[in-house]
Amino acid sequence: MMSGYVKERLPDLLSALLSVALGLFALYESKIYEVGELRNMGPGYFPIACSIALIGLGVLLFIVALRAAPSEFGEERPSIISLLLIGASLLSFALLIEDYGLFPAIAVAVFISTFASENRNILRSLLLALLTAAGCVVIFVYLLALPIKVFAL
Description:
The protein is mainly alpha-helical. Helices cover 69% and strands 0% of the residues. The chain is built from 6 helices and no strands. Helix 5 packs antiparallel against helix 6 (122-143).
């Protein structure tokens, strides 16, 4: 029989275990790729690093869930509009990335997703979208030198 202590924390503990399981699965799947080294990273380096980070995060979440007070979940559910906006955001990215490039695809996706929140502000959404898109371009195109078009006109 499950103790009350664990039962109260079960959602948090299960989500932590799910993170660990997902990290272990990704780690197992990424072993088929060559890792390389820090100066000359192979295709498996980043997935393995992310997998290890996810496993570590899951372990940390598990420890925190055991030590912290149990989470209280309200009766409130996300609105259907918010869910549709998040889905539209993902769909817009998928539809725009190939034809228009990284910057417009991320900017539009982030802009749409900001309206899923109750705290809506067009100027803040536009600023967040542009800064996020610019940050992704710097990281993925210029720092990591991935062959992604910034603008495809």
